[in-house]
Amino acid sequence: MSIIAPSELILNPDGSIYHINLKPHHVSQNIILVGDQNRVSKVAKHFDTIEFETQKREFKTIIGTLNNKRFTVISTGIGPDNIDIVVNELDALVNIDLKTRTIKKEHTSLNIVRIGTSGSLQIDIPVNSIVLGKYGLGFDGLLHAYDCEQILEKEMEDAFIRHTQYSNRKSRPYIVKNNKELENRLISEKVYTGITATAGGFYGPQGRILRLPIQDPELNTKIDSFVFKGIKITNLEMETSAIYGLSQLLGHKAVSMNAIIANRANLTFSEDPYQAVENLI
């Protein structure tokens, strides 16, 4: 039996896990991830009951019930690095015995749904619409820190690299599929689907130019025009690919849904982005 060292699995003095400040009994099977800590209460206001609230740094959590189902809503902050913290710590809370510091024999699988905001890359996906990512395309490199080859969509990755002439000085883009069971439960006629791209930053990594030139000014145009077996890249944000990748590796189910508040193709921005998010919730 391998014991996980205190330097690797860090706990707070009260026994909660280090960053997200939760204990095992705080984790529901149904997890809602939001980026903005202020969005946690906007989700939780729909609950029938509130059981628990806590916050440490940008990681705010509210636990409650809706229609007799228990939900844990957590803010992740921005970016795949924060997703690495949140998803790993949620998994540790349900699949590692924190007292013995050993992996449990029986695996617990979580349902993880991201409710986020994003920019559309396609002119036919307007602001205020909703996109569900069938795949996550990661430019961030996070997943390459793990043994992940078995879950990657290599044929699609190779096609994307060829199409965009992607620089080999950057981390290799990786592509991971969502959980089809969760997708089927959340899809509707009002929801667009496609590939959700995940960048490691907001400005240069997403093709925005303020004062710094970027490595490939045409990359967004190449991304927009990529099609693989009829599937296009619909939107660009900063979390989905990491959620899909880590969830698959750890044995959890994940789907990412985004309210489109900007359209990069026609340079428009939602006049009421808060209502767009509320509609998604």
Description:
With 281 residues, the protein is α/β, with parallel strands linked by helices. The protein folds into two domains: 1-108, Rossmann fold (3-Layer(aba) Sandwich), CATH 3.40.50.1580; 117-281, Rossmann fold (3-Layer(aba) Sandwich). It contains seven helices and 14 strands. Strand 13 and strand 14 (268-269) form a beta hairpin. Helix 2 runs parallel beside helix 6 (240-250). The model has no long low-confidence stretch (mean pLDDT 96). InterPro entries: Nucleoside_phosphorylase_d, Nucleoside_phosphorylase_sf. GO terms for molecular function: purine-nucleoside phosphorylase activity. Residues 31-265 form the Nucleoside phosphorylase domain. Keywords: Glycosyltransferase, Transferase. This is Purine nucleoside phosphorylase.
Question: Considering DSSP H and I runs of 4 or more, what fraction of the residues is helical?
Answer: 10-25%
Uncertain runs with pLDDT below 50, 5 residues or more? none
The coarse silhouette is globular
Q: What is the string of helix and strand elements?
A: EHEEEHEEEEHEHEHEEHEEH
* Topology-level CATH name of the largest domain: Rossmann fold
The helix-and-strand class reads: alpha/beta
Strand order of the largest sheet: 7-12-10-8-13
SSE map:
Blueprint: E1 30-34, H1 37-44, E2 49-56, E3 59-66, E4 69-75, H2 80-95, E5 96-97, E6 102-103, E7 111-120, E8 130-138, H3 154-164, E9 174-177, H4 180-186, E10 191-198, H5 219-224, E11 227-228, E12 231-237, H6 240-250, E13 253-263, E14 268-269, H7 273-280
Parallel strand pairs: 1-4, 1-7, 7-13, 8-10, 10-12
Antiparallel strand pairs: 2-3, 3-4, 5-6, 7-12, 8-9, 8-13, 11-12, 13-14
Helix pairs in contact: 2-6
